[in-house]
Design a protein that fits this description.
Mean pLDDT: 84
Radius of gyration: 31 Å
Order of helices and strands: EEHHEEEEHEEHEEHH
Low-confidence stretches: none
Number of domains: 3
Helix content: 25-40%
Shape: extended
CATH topology of the largest domain: His-Me finger endonuclease fold
Number of strands: 10
CATH architecture of the largest domain: 3-Layer(aba) Sandwich
Length: 228
């Protein structure tokens, strides 16, 4: 029962599951024992029962190691109450509103747009000969050799009326996140490395499965004729 006392000797806490309290339940899942391991194996902080961060060869657990590194203390600093309309205080540009911030992809972190723009400009000045990839689609290997301008891709797409060059049907394969339909794949000759056209996912994969061999494809056609 929930109101029962933990069955472990000298423990007066209430039961969470079975016959033991939450702390002893956690210890057993973590250390396979109701007793704490030798102090040398767990965090240096007295009230902490977490194991040491062995990956960093630290005397502290991962949580306390990160806190000491970021805040120079094992305790979290108090959260500052920001004025209305202010989302973040940048150390370089002061108070930032919603228009001055952007959310880092796949996180909830807010960063300063002005800082990002300044870093981008500095990077462009230091790397004037860098390869700009945002204007290109890559195919095959991701190198300058295997890429096509987006404008050239769009022109090919328009010539084919947005249809696969083999089956004359639009692409139906969904992207990895299943939110949109994939673009037509860029098909190229593996010998001459020239672009042949745009294909749907299934036609492109089928050509790869037949190893671009005319003999195998002709044999497959004869096979289908015999058994149709």
């Amino acid at each position: 029962m929930k109101n029962d006392i933990c069955s472990i000797e000298n423990c007066e806490k209430k039961v969470k599951s079975g016959k033991i309290c939450e702390i002893h339940n956690w210890r057993f899942r973590k250390y396979k024992s109701y007793d704490l391991p030798v102090r040398s194996q767990i965090c240096k902080i007295v009230d902490c029962e977490k194991s040491k961060d062995k990956a960093q060869s630290s005397a502290y657990c991962a949580m306390h190691r990160v806190r000491r590194s970021r805040h120079k203390s094992i305790n979290l600093p108090e959260k500052k109450i920001l004025p209305n309309g202010i989302l973040k205080i940048c150390i370089h540009h002061g108070r930032l509103t919603k228009e001055d911030c952007y959310i880092v992809p796949n996180t909830t972190w807010l960063n300063c747009k002005i800082c990002k723009k300044e870093k981008s400009e500095k990077f462009k000045q230091k790397n004037p000969n860098r390869i700009i990839t945002k204007n290109y689609f890559h195919f095959g290997k991701k190198t300058p050799k295997f890429r096509i301008l987006i404008a050239e891709y769009n022109e090919l797409h328009k010539k084919q009326n947005g249809l696969c060059k083999i089956c004359n049907k639009p692409e139906t394969m969904k992207s990895a996140n299943a939110k949109s339909i994939k673009r037509l794949a860029i098909d190229h000759c593996h010998k001459s490395e020239k672009i042949r056209g745009l294909l749907c996912h299934y036609c492109n994969v089928s050509l790869g499965g037949f190893k671009d061999s005319i003999e195998i494809l002709e044999s497959a056609i004869e096979y289908l004729k015999l058994h149709s």
